[in-house]
Amino acid sequence: MPDTLDxxxxxxxxxxxxxxxxxxxxxxxxxxxKRPAKTPDGALVAGLSNAWITLDNAKxxxxxxxxxxxxxxxxxxxASAARDVVAVVFTGAGDRAFCTGGNTxxxxxxxxxxxxxxxxYMRLFNDMVSAILCCDKPVVCRVNGMRIGGGQEIGxxxxxxxxxxxxxxxxxxxxxxxxxxxxxxxFLPLLIGAERxxxxxxxxxxWSAHKAYRLGLISDIAPALKxxxxxxxxxxxxxxxxxxxxxxxxxxxxxxGAALAEGKAFLARGRIDLSRLDDKxxxxxxxxxLTFPECLTKxxxxxxKPKIDAWNRNKENSRAWLALNMMTExxxxxxxxxxxxxxxxxxxxxxxxRSLAEGAPWTxxxxxxxxxxxxxxx
Length: 378
Description:
The chain has helices at residues 4-11, 66-81, 104-111, 115-133, 150-156, 173-176, 184-192, 194-203, 209-214, 255-268, 275-289, 293-303, 305-325, 329-339, 349-357, 364-370, and strands at residues 30-38, 44-55, 85-92, 97-99, 139-143, 146-148, 160-164, 168-170, 207-208, 220-222, 225-227, 230-232, 271-272. By secondary structure, the chain is of the alpha/beta class. The protein has two domains: 19-224 and 273-370, 2-enoyl-CoA Hydratase, Chain A, domain 1 (Alpha-Beta Complex), CATH 3.90.226.10; 233-271, no CATH class. Strand 11 (225-227) and strand 12 (230-232) form a beta hairpin.
């Protein structure tokens, strides 16, 4: 039987066309690399790879700047067009965060009060989400830490999510001067149902990886905490004797505080090791390798349609609203997060509601009165 690689070499065109926008690119804050594909038994596959796209801004919890958004778009275009790429892994640097959304320092210092500029930025953001949703390769979100706000939204645009079990998931919009209309209001009802989506989007209370897995927000979880050389489950949600059947710390009789303190003490004894997470990522990519490529592509293109349909219906009017909101609530919210002390990065919501109830206009004086004082920024 003829060697398949020899057959391919003899039959391919003399010079293949280049379909990427930029065949070679570098972007501050975004890493693009190809790693050899592996079979399920761990053997390297010559000539095939998986593309890893990494948000590389760990000191700011991998929040994306304007330049990073451009880099993500170009990286997904490159991965999509690469003939040798089987799957795309989208992740963040370090072990504290996949992504916490847009860079609030840049938001507060440049975009706040400049709706015309933020509207241009949101064109780039929309293109980033669309680049993920329309990638010609399956996309796996490797959640190495927090996935919050816009980070949650770009994560939900991916096809699969595997998380380390110390990760936290959630939205931040109504707490920090925005609305989660960069994908969350489109994707959450599809993934977890209308009422859970309402809870996540409006209350902005973070969920553990275990809760996210139970509700169907993510595909799988992997232990990441090693204590005395052994992997253990997240001690804040699943191992304490005061937890209920869902792994939540129960209330009453002072047990919650005791359980939390005990869990934190146990957590402090360990170190983070993401090797189990990477094993699960490689295992999923290996399963995707062993499929007919065009049949796989057609399948995930069809399965993406509910997300894409919801996204395309809403992205342009959401872009316009978000831009105008930079004159009012976002102006106050992002400044509060950027300028407030670490323990108080939200505005005085009661004072704002009272002022609006009395008919106060949105002025610089009102915004200044709402922003907490005494912080040193992010």
